[in-house]
Amino acid sequence: MTPSDGDRSGSRAALGLGGNVGDPLRAMAEALKTLDADPSIEIEAVSRLYRTPPWGPVAQDWFLNCCAVVRTTMEPLQLLEKCKDIEQALKRQRTIRWGPRTIDIDILTFDDLSLENERLTIPHPRMHDRGFVLLPLAEIAGDIQVRGRTVSGWSQECDKEGIDVASENGDWWRSS
Length: 176
Known about the structure:
Blueprint lengths: L10 E9 L4 H14 L3 E6 L2 E4 L10 E10 L3 H14 L14 E7 L4 E2 L4 E2 L8 H11 L3 E2 L2 E2 H7 L6 E4 L4 H4 L1
Antiparallel strand pairs: 1-4, 1-5, 2-4, 3-4, 3-10, 6-7, 8-9
Helix pairs in contact: 3-4
């Protein structure tokens, strides 16, 4: 049974999305719509859209970011493959780490799973340091535990400098 069939026993995963090349609003909306169309994934919540300063060592444009909470019957590595396939379909180029990108989809959490291998680390190893992740995620799933604290707790202490809400519409991705 898939989550869309009303089965709430699937896993709850938090995703972070962002981009700063081309039309990141369209790319994130398309990514969310593609995830939502998959019968093994149900989008439970999507945050408002945030405009955030670039992060990392590369000079680049500002980002648009959001977070989503999904319910899925996929295993973590299957969800990762789905996210990477969507990035590729939306022309993501992996040239510079933390560099400009059309779309980035990260698995932040997956239930209360701790996983570390060469392809995936859950919870995301740097999420508790990043305001562009914590603020949108706290908005929709502040109760998620990461490193012994809630996302809401981490969001109170993160660097929020330059981060602004770009859209108050929580349903922005359906109408884009």
